[in-house]
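Pipeline run #58 for the internal structure catalog. This entry was flagged by the ingest filter as a single-chain record with no existing model, so it goes straight to prediction. Upstream metadata was stripped on purpose; only the residue string is passed forward. Reviewer on rotation: M.T. Logging verbosity set to normal.
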Amino acid sequence: MKKEDCFYLGIITKPFGYKGELVCYFDVDDPTYYENLDSVLIELQTGLVPFLIESLRLNNHNAYIKLQDVKPEDSLLLIKKELYLPLQRLPKLTGNKFYFHEVIGFEVIDKNKGNIGKIDKIMDHPAQPIMQLIHSNGKEILIPVIDDIVLSVDRKNKQITIQAPEGLIDLYLE
């Protein structure tokens, strides 16, 4: 499976006990959604490799995982390796919540300016994510992805309606 067809679930942080269990940090909003996993993809030098899960226990964002057919001494080689799952395993979002990858190509409609462009990518900055739009004239527009700006997400018509702060869009188009 290709990495672009998957999403980042978390990372293996350290060994646990002497039977080959691993502590994994699940970097997700709701770890309980993944408490019944039967397999996971681990990024190795050769690419993403599937591993069956023998047992999994959750403690907040930490998961204690025992991988099937992995000996305790071999499990140590997996420390600091990243975990992935296929995109189909993502929980469905509704309303104004969206995954960054799902809105690429969506048109952005501003309440005052109308259609201001299509989403080229979303940059995940520490302060807040930012939509990078390409306007019909080829210019780039950057819009923060925050609840006060994003008014609605229309998945059917591939549109996001926003209300940008006054003057923000003009900065890019003038």
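catalog note: The CA atoms of residues 101 and 122 lie 8 Å apart.
catalog note: The chain has a mean pLDDT of 93.
status: ready for reviewer M.T.
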